[in-house]
Amino acid sequence: GFVVFATLVVTVSLILILVVGPRHGQTNILVYITICSVIGALSVSCVKGLGIAIKEFLAGKAVLNHPLFWLLLFSLLLCVSTQINYLNRALDIFNTSIVTPIYYVIFTTSVLTCSAILFKEWRHMAPDDVIGTFSGFLTIIVGIFLLHAFKDVNFTLANLPLALRKEERGVNGSLGGTYDCFGHQEETSPCLSEIQAPDSLPARRNGNLAAY
Q1: pLDDT in tens, 68-109
Q2: What residues make up the domain containing 17?
Q3: How many domains are there within the chain?
Q4: To which protein family does this belong (predicted)?
Q5: Does residue 170 form part of some domain?
Q6: How many angstroms separate the CA atoms of 123 and 2, rounded?
Q7: Which of 21, 84, 85, 202 has CB atoms 3.0–4.6 Å from 25's, for a disulfide?
């Protein structure tokens, strides 16, 4: 299964690099990002293989004499250099806030697919663990898109809808009205006389309508 997956990834990458990239790479954001993402699945697999090889080497086994070690090392260098090349091209042409979330989603999906095929991790996972993994993955995806979508938006009190500010004034009583008074720079504010009249509040409490 992994051989079929790796062959498919290499074939798709070569088609995108040699055929689709020169024609649509400057206008379609998915071309260069897809190249980086699908090749990233192979690079992560190579890193895992090299990690196992280094562990065996530290255990005293003759790993350097095995051709698989050098094949993994060469494949890793080739994949990483290709990823950096086309990722920089995508960042030079398109906006970073658009490239980053799309690249993260496609790259992570490719890596999860490759790991599931190569290591068969999903066979030993309970159903609740599978649901939790997918839920966490979807949560991270939504969070990244929201962060990049609203990173340049500044929310202030003045940007809040008028209905919310009315509700806040209703809950806080007269505090909202006092806030509005100090929010205006004009000395002719309709509530300025109310603030300057110290006897108005006791008169109201005592029911003295004449003083009011």
Answers
A1: 888 888 988 998 998 999 999 888 888 887 888 888 888 888
A2: 1-153
A3: 1
A4: Belongs to the NIPA family.
A5: no
A6: 16
A7: 21
